[in-house]
Amino acid sequence: DGRVLPTNPKSRKAAEALVAEFKALGAGSLESDRQDRADERRKAYKLACLRWHPDKNLQDEDTATEVFQFLQLLKEWALSS
Predict the structure, then answer these.
(1) Does 12 score more than 70 pLDDT?
(2) 59-66: long-range contacts (C-beta < 8 A, 24 or more apart)?
(3) How many Å is the maximal CA-CA distance in the chain?
(4) What is the pTM of this model?
């Protein structure tokens, strides 16, 4: 989808998993389903940010920083309804 994935293999794997997770929470066919899925994506995005924040991953800060930066690039796409 044109997004630049991190180059570090560990960060790349995590970023690919996040993209797959957000794609799985994509738009549904019914309006109420779309809103529910948008809420799920927002919740998943917030949890991913908390999980990958560099301050919460001091043992692997480089990977966490790359994935967190990727999440920032993914924000608009992940939160679009």
Answers:
(1) yes
(2) 60/10, 62/8, 62/11, 63/8, 63/10, 63/11, 63/14, 66/6, 66/8, 66/11, 66/15
(3) 43
(4) 0.72
